[in-house]
C-alpha cells in the first residue's frame, strides 16, 4: 500500500517536473542538452581512466577539465540568459553569448597547452 | 815510458767510448717522408720556392713526380718570367724551377730578363739582391746558350760581396745591417761561385786567396757534438724562425761545393770536417718538416756529387747493432755514401773491441769478408772473448786504390756500439724456510725459473726465508743483470721490494722476519712472492710470480706504525671513467588499441546524442541574418571560431606557444570585430521584435 503510494508520488513528481520543464524556453533547453553532453563525455573519460589507468595523466586531466569547464561556462551562460533571473535583466543574451565564446576560447587555449 | 804510453792509451779509449753512434745513410723512410711532406694542397704547391725544394728533393731521392708537377707549375713559371714586374726573388725561383722542369720558353724571354738582371747587379747593395740576380744569370746560362750573361765588372762585384764579410768568416746581409749570419756566409759563397762562373775574365788571384782564408776561418767556428758530428750554428734569429743549424749548415755546404766546383784550385778542406758535417745531416734522421728535409737532402747531395773537389764522405753502418750469441748472428757492416749508393772497392777491418763500462780494449785487427751479393762486410764468428754485454766496436775502412784516398773521406776509425745478447742460464733455484736460531731447514722447494711456479709456504716471525739461484752466460761466465728484485706483496696492497745480491754466479737473499716485523707493519696473512731478473742483453729476462707465503707475525703493539695508505692508482685517476649506463623510465603499459578505440567511439556517443537532442528540440537557423552584410559577418564569425579552434589543433600538433599567440592575436581581432557586428545585429533585431 505504502509502496504503491510512493510510486504514485514519484510518478506525480516526475510528471510535474516534466510539465514544468516543458515550459522552459527552447534556448535554455539547448544549453541544458549541451551541459548533459559535456558532463557525460567527462564521465566516460573518468570511467576509461578507472578501467585502463591514468597513464598520460595530463591528457586525461585536460580532457576532463575541458568538459567540466565548458559545462560550467554553459551553466553560467544559462544563468545569464534565463529571463527569470532578475539580476541579469539588463544584460542582453548576445552579450552573455559573447562572454561564453570568449571564455571557451581562452579555456581551450590553456587546455591545448596542457594536453602535451 | 811503457807505463806512460799505457796511460795515454787508456785516456784515449775512455775518450773514444763516448763518441760511438750509428749513422745510417738515406733510406726509404726519407722517400716516404718526402712524398708525405711535399703533398700539393689544392692541386699545387704553395710557392715556386717550395716547388723547387720539392723537385730538388724528389730528384735526389729518385722519385719521379716531374711530369705531374710540370702540368700545374709551368703556367706559373711562364707567367712569372714574362711579367716585367716580377720581383727578383720570384724570377730566381721561377728560373730554378724551370731548370728542372724545362718549360717551353724562348730565348727572347731570357734575353729580356738577363738585361734587367745585369742592371740590378750594378745597383744592388744587399746580399740577397745580388744572390738572386747572379743566381738567376747563372741559371740562364745553364738553360740557354744564346743569351750573353757575362759580367763585365766581375772583380768589382766580387769586391762588393766580399765587403760584407766579417772577420770570423760569417757574412752580413747588407752594409747597413751590422749583424752577421752563418746562413748568409753560405749564400755569399754561392753568389761568389756564380760571379766566378759568369766572369768574362779570371778573377784577381789575391781576392780568391783571401776568400779561401775566410772559408777556413768559418770552419774554425764549427760546433761539435760528442758523437763525432759537427755543424754550423746560426746566431742570427729571424722572425719566422726559419734559420737554425740545419739550414745554416746546409747553406754553407751548398755554397762551399758550388764555390769549389767553380774554381779549378783545391780548397784543401780536411776530409774529417766533411765527414763530420755529413754525420750531422744523417744524425737528424727523418725531419718532420719539409724545409729541414730539403736542407738535409740537398746538403747531402751536394756532398756526394761535388765532382771530387772536396772529399766524398763514406758512411759505415750496421744493419743490426744487436747480435745474439744464442742465434749465432754474424757481425755485418755496410759501407755506403751518404745517399746510400755504391762505393769503390774497399775492405773493412775490425780493429778494437771495448767493453762498455770497462776501460781496457782488446785489439783484434781482423778483416771482414766482403759478400758481393749483399754488399755487406761480414765477420763469420764473433771473437772468443765477446760474451753477452754492451760493446763498442772500432772499424777502419781501407780503400784498395790509393788514388781514392784523396777523393773519399773515411774518417779514420769508426766506433759503433753493439749489443751482444743471449739466453742466460738460470740454475739451482731454491726457496727455503729456515729456523732462525739454529738455521735448520724447515721446508725447501726447488724452483724452475724458466717455467711457472706456484709454491705455497708458511712462516712465522721466528723463521727466515732464503732464495738462491745462479746466473751464467752462454759461455759459462758469471752474469750480473741490471735488475734482480724480490717483491713481497701483502693482500691489502702493501708491498716490499728487496734487492737480490750476488757473489760471482750465485745470487742469494735471506729475509729474517724477526728483524722485518716492523717494516712489515705487523701485517700477518698472505704475501705474493714475485721475482724480477732483467737486463737489456738478457734475452730471457723475466718477471714472474713464484707463489704464496702465509706469514704469521705477532700482533702490533699500540705505538707501531700504521701501514701507509696505498698510492692512488694513476690509471684509475687519469684513465677512462667507468661507462655510465643511463637508466630510463620504462614506458607505462598502454591499453590494447581496441579498448582505446572503443572508448573513442563511446566519447563520440554523447555528441551524437546532443545532435539528436537538437533535432528533437526542432532547433532551426531562422534567426540567422538573411540580408547580405550581416550574413557575411555572421559567416565570418563562425569561420573565425573554427579557425581559432583549428589553430589550437595545430598548436597541439607542432607549433610553439609564441607562434600560436601571434596568430591568435590576429585571428582574435577579426573575430571580435565580426562577433561584435553579428551579435549587435542580432540584439537590434530582437529589440525591434520586442518593441513591435
From TrEMBL, chain A:
One of its GO terms (cellular component) is oligosaccharyltransferase complex. Belongs to the DAD/OST2 family. One of its GO terms (biological process) is protein N-linked glycosylation. The chain crosses the membrane at residues 33-51, 57-77, 97-115. It is a multi-pass membrane protein. Keywords: Apoptosis, Endoplasmic reticulum, Membrane, Transmembrane, Transmembrane helix. Pathway: Protein modification; protein glycosylation. This is Dolichyl-diphosphooligosaccharide--protein glycosyltransferase subunit DAD1. Subunit of the oligosaccharyl transferase (OST) complex that catalyzes the initial transfer of a defined glycan (Glc(3)Man(9)GlcNAc(2) in eukaryotes) from the lipid carrier dolichol-pyrophosphate to an asparagine residue within an Asn-X-Ser/Thr consensus motif in nascent polypeptide chains, the first step in protein N-glycosylation. N-glycosylation occurs cotranslationally and the complex associates with the Sec61 complex at the channel-forming translocon complex that mediates protein translocation across the endoplasmic reticulum (ER). All subunits are required for a maximal enzyme activity. It is found in: Endoplasmic reticulum membrane. It comes from the Eukaryota. InterPro entries: DAD/Ost2. Component of the oligosaccharyltransferase (OST) complex.
TrEMBL record, chain B:
The chain crosses the membrane at residues 595-617, 629-651, 657-674. Keywords: Endoplasmic reticulum, Membrane, Signal, Transmembrane, Transmembrane helix. One of its GO terms (biological process) is protein N-linked glycosylation. It is a multi-pass membrane protein. One of its GO terms (cellular component) is oligosaccharyltransferase complex. Residues 1-20 form the signal peptide. Subunit of the oligosaccharyl transferase (OST) complex that catalyzes the initial transfer of a defined glycan (Glc(3)Man(9)GlcNAc(2) in eukaryotes) from the lipid carrier dolichol-pyrophosphate to an asparagine residue within an Asn-X-Ser/Thr consensus motif in nascent polypeptide chains, the first step in protein N-glycosylation. N-glycosylation occurs cotranslationally and the complex associates with the Sec61 complex at the channel-forming translocon complex that mediates protein translocation across the endoplasmic reticulum (ER). All subunits are required for a maximal enzyme activity. Belongs to the SWP1 family. Residues 584-684 form the Ribophorin II C-terminal domain. Residues 26-304 form the Ribophorin II N-terminal domain. It is found in: Endoplasmic reticulum membrane. It comes from the Eukaryota. Residues 428-551 form the Ribophorin II third domain. Component of the oligosaccharyltransferase (OST) complex. Residues 314-420 form the Ribophorin II second domain. This is Dolichyl-diphosphooligosaccharide--protein glycosyltransferase subunit 2. Pathway: Protein modification; protein glycosylation.
